[in-house]
């Protein structure tokens, strides 16, 4: 069963490339007519408004936009991976501009310290006391550019804040604002001056999305738009269409999505198979099962359904699992990828009906 793909964007000031690996995947076909038990019209209106705003700058990227919206509604962080020049950072900035919430950007470098991210205590002579000055992590949407360029000491500063939505400084707890989402980018090719992200940190990302090169048609559209005078980012053309209160209400609606007990067992079987698969050195944790469940709920809502189907789970499985599993050395030497193993597992597990 497949869902109707998103409608194409109507205008462009700057065109972003399409992710072939994400956009070429089979998507579920439209479900038969049904009477929804939950009114999803408000969620659909907000989602369409965001798509329209992104369409002012973006042509293509329909699957990527849908997955980013899914992560936002599922209250999850996203890791965008791709070579330089495929507009990973711009995509994240545009999405942040559609939300009327505080936004900050962090450029990770090898000399970045934890205090540069979290904040630090400053001594006030007139009061003879220390005052905590929050760092750039204190925002609702935090864009971390080139996240794999910071050393382990700085990466570890993100562990608590990404999982518990708080930091602890000098014995005092400082909660994050709600919502709180980290959108991070990294370059998988360049190795000099980069550090491999710890598995514990990768596990805190709901999705890992591959941003690849554009197709020939998309690149021609990029050139046409630039030649016609639409060069530049034109970020000011993108307006905020959703408030923090709107997002909180929509997230509560997503959490009430109907999920059959057999589907919960299906998710558990999929994730459990990664722990016994002969081609994997490390399987996914229960956090992956929760990510699949929450992501499938949000995806179903975006596609106009108040219930989750096995196809929703199958569609999200590569994005949820690819950064949570490790191949055995033998399987890596044979040229296999994490996505290959996930595809095998999806084909192996019987689909509930």
Automatic annotation (TrEMBL):
Pfam families: AAA_3, AAA_lid_2. SMART domains: AAA. Signal peptide: none annotated. This is MoxR family ATPase. Residues 19-32 have a biased composition (Low complexity). Residues 1-32 are annotated as: Disordered. SUPFAM superfamilies: P-loop containing nucleoside triphosphate hydrolases. Gene3D superfamilies: Magnesium chelatase subunit I, C-Terminal domain, P-loop containing nucleotide triphosphate hydrolases. It comes from the Bacteria. Residues 74-215 form the AAA+ ATPase domain. It comes from Hymenobacter lucidus.
């Amino acid at each position: 069963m497949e869902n109707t793909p998103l409608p194409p964007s109507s205008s462009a000031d700057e065109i972003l490339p399409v992710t072939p690996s994400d956009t070429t995947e089979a998507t579920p076909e439209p479900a038969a007519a049904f009477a929804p038990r939950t009114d999803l019209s408000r969620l659909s209106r907000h989602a369409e408004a965001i798509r329209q705003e992104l369409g002012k700058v973006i042509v293509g990227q329909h699957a990527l936009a849908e997955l980013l919206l899914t992560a936002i509604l599922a209250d999850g962080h996203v890791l965008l991976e791709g070579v330089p020049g495929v507009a990973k950072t711009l995509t994240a900035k545009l999405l942040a501009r559609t939300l009327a919430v505080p936004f900050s950007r962090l450029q990770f470098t090898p000399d970045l310290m934890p205090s540069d991210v979290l904040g630090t205590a400053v001594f006030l002579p007139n009061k003879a006391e220390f005052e905590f000055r929050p760092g750039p992590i204190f925002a609702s949407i935090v864009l971390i550019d080139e996240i794999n360029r910071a050393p382990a000491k700085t990466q570890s500063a993100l562990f608590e804040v990404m999982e518990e939505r708080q930091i602890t400084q000098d014995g005092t707890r400082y909660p994050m604002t709600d919502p709180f989402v980290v959108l991070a980018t990294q370059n998988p090719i360049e190795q000099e001056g980069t550090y491999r992200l710890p598995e514990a940190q990768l596990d805190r990302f709901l999705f890992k999305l591959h941003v690849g090169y554009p197709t020939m048609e998309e690149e021609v559209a990029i050139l046409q738009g630039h030649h016609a005078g639409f060069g530049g980012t034109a970020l000011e053309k993108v307006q905020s269409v959703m408030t923090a209160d709107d997002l909180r209400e929509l997230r509560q609606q997503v959490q009430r999505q109907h999920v059959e007990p057999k589907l919960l067992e299906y998710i558990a079987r999929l994730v459990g198979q990664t722990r016994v698969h002969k081609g994997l050195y490390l399987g996914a944790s229960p956090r992956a099962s929760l990510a699949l469940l929450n992501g499938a709920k949000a995806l179903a809502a975006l596609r106009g359904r108040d219930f989750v189907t096995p196809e929703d789970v199958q569609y999200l499985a590569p994005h949820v699992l690819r950064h949570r599993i490790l191949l055995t050395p033998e399987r890596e030497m044979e040229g296999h990828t994490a996505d290959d193993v996930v595809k095998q597992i999806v084909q192996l597990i019987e689909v509930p009906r």
